[in-house]
Amino acid sequence: MSHNSIIAGLDIGTTRISQVIARVNDEGEIDIIGVGEEPCQGLRRGVIVDIDEVASAIATANKRATRMAGVNTRSVFVGVPVIRVSCAASHGMTATSGDDWRITALDVKQALDAASVLAVPPDREIISVLPQEYIVDGLGGIQDPEGMTGIRLEVNARVITGQVTILENMAESVERAGLSIEGRILEPVAVAQAILTDEQTHRGAMLVDIGGQITQVVAFYEGTPIQFLCVPVGGVHITNDIAIGMKIPFEEAERIKQRSASGGENDKDKDEFIQDIIDARLREIIELIESETREVRNTGLVPCGVFFAGAGSFAPGTLELASEILDLPAQIGKSHPISVPKGIEPRSLSQVALGITRHVAGDSRFLLARESQPSAFKRALFNLRGWFDEFLKDFF
Question: Which of 137, 147, 166, 369, by CA, is between 20 and 30 Å from 54?
C-alpha cells in the first residue's frame, strides 16, 4: 500500500476526538479503511484548555483507527475551527516550469506559495491559502489550471490566518499524542467537502455546522469561501436549557433531546414545553447568524440556500426556524456516498474528519508535498519506532 495513497483526517471536537483513515484509489476516490473515536473534555467552546486530556484522547482515537486500517499512520491532517480567524486578499505569480509550457501541480503550488508571502502580525499564523481564481497569460476565471498551456500563472487567493496560541496548543496536543501535523484545513470547509456539491459551492451556498459548544458558518460563492463565522453556542447549550427548564440531570436532558429529534415523548404538553425550550436557543443561534450574514444574503450570493450539519442540526424545528429567519431554503446536508469498513455506519462518521480526507485527496498540492518527504526507508524506520513505542506502552 503506497504511503502517498493514505490520508488521515483528525477532528479535534469539543466533545469527542475523531480520526478517519482513507485510501485514495487510482480514480482519485477515497475508501475509508479505519475509524477511531474517543470522548474528550479538554476543550471549551472549541478551544483547547487541557493539552494532556486532548493528547490522550487523540492517541486513543489514532490507535483504534490504525488497528482497524492495518496501517501505522503517524501524521495527520487536522481540522481547525474558525475561531478568531481572519482573511486577507493576496496575489501570487510564477513562470511555468515545463519545457512544453504545460502547467503542473508544482507550478500551482509555487503560485500559491507566492500568494502566501505577506506581512502577518506576530500573534497570527497562516492556516491555509484558498485560491479564488487562477489567471493564465492574462486569462482569468480559471478554477483548475493543471494541464493547461501558458507561460505565466497567477492566482488571486484568500490567505486565512489564526491566533498563534490556538494553533500552537493544537500542535502540542497532536505531538504529545506521538503524531505530527501534515496539514491544516478549516473545519467548515472540510464539512462542505463532505456534504456539498461543486455546483452548490459555485452557485452560492451557506453551511451551518452546529457542534457541541460552537456553531461554525461558511458561505461559498464561485467555489470559494467568502465569509466565515463562529457562534459560541451549540448543542450542549440546548441540553443545558432542557436540564434547567425541567430540573433534571444533564444526561437525562440529553436523552430527552435525542428522543425529541426522533419524534417526541408522546406526551403533548411535555413535548410542547421541550420544543419551546429548544426553539428559544435555536432562535438565538440563527438570529446571530442572520445579523452577521445579512450582507452576503441580501446581495443574492447564496441562492442554493443553507445546509445544516453537525449533531445539533437534528434538533426539531431547526429547518423551519432557519427558513423563517434567514429567508432561505434550508435542509440537512447529507454526506456523499462513501465506502466504509463492515460494521461502520456512514452517518456516524465525523463530517469534519471525512471532509478532510476528501479535501486532501482532491488537492494535488498536499500529495506533491509528500514527494519531497524523506525516503521510504526513513519513513519505515519512523513508523517502526512509533509502533515500538506503542507496543511498550501497551505492554507496560
Answer: 369
